[in-house]
Design goal:
Length: about 120
């Protein structure tokens, strides 16, 4: 299988020209329990989700837009009108994860905590 390369800055994807035996697929919507997203689940061997507290997500999202040069008001508007709307959909409607990963804010190096998901 050919593996893609994603450029967040250019907002494009392209084929890398490399083949891969294992592919890690990342998309906030892949675990949504409705079509068309739910149709993809049979193609995955292991399904994990990175899940964070909504308030932590909000702080990180705001900081991301500020670091990209947005003013405080523009960053807040972007977070409130788009990012948190999408985060709420993902947090509330995701299904099928076998493993849930959470960062442990109290640990040095942002260690990751893993837990088996309820089936």
């Amino acid at each position: 299988m050919m593996s893609p390369i994603l450029s967040r800055q250019q907002r494009t994807g392209s084929a890398s020209g490399r083949s891969a035996r294992h592919i890690i697929v990342e998309c906030n919507y892949l675990l949504i329990g409705t079509k068309p997203w739910s149709d993809l689940m049979p193609f995955f061997n292991l399904v994990t989700m990175v899940r964070e507290d909504r308030q932590l997500l909000e702080r990180r999202l705001l900081q991301r837009w500020l670091s990209h040069g947005y003013s405080g008001d523009a960053a807040r508007a972007k977070v409130d009108s788009n990012d948190l709307v999408n985060a709420d959909i993902v947090l509330n409607e995701s299904r099928g994860a076998q493993l849930i990963l959470r960062s442990r804010q109290s640990s040095p190096g942002r260690a990751v905590q893993a837990e088996a998901a309820d089936r």
